[in-house]
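hiii so um. not sure if this is the right channel but i have a protein structure encoded as tokens and i wanna go backwards to a sequence. like what aa goes where. can anyone help
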């Protein structure tokens, strides 16, 4: 990846990292409890932050929300970014419990599974995240 300059470009790279990772975890019927976001600047300085969630998740939206929080903690200076990394760990069975405060969770889970099916048949670029 060539050096990236803006926060918007870095966030787009995060979107393209998250989709395949979440799909792999979902395909195994698992979820990730820890999300790690890493930035390597042009001078090869690395900065990474991670967040451990209350329960394992495998939904794109839950992981992206976590990555958004980590993004603002990780970007520590205005400098070119050479590399962006996303890591999911603490892999175990996800908890699909009804949540009174998040009624759309099951709908998002169904949507993620449909998108995974389309991408497995037609390729990852068949469904692209909104920029």
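sure thing!! here u go:
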């Amino acid at each position: 990846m060539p050096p990236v300059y803006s926060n918007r470009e870095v966030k787009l790279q995060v979107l393209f990292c998250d989709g395949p990772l979440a799909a792999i975890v979902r395909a195994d019927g698992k979820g990730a409890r820890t999300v790690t976001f890493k930035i390597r600047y042009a001078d090869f300085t690395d900065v990474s932050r991670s967040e451990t969630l209350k329960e394992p998740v495998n939904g794109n939206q839950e992981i992206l929300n976590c990555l958004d929080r980590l993004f603002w903690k990780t970007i520590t200076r205005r400098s070119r970014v050479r590399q962006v990394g996303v890591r999911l760990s603490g892999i175990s069975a996800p908890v699909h419990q009804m949540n009174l405060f998040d009624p759309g969770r099951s709908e998002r889970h169904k949507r993620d599974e449909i998108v995974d099916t389309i991408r497995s048949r037609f390729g990852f670029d068949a469904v692209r995240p909104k920029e």
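oh and The chain has a mean pLDDT of 82.
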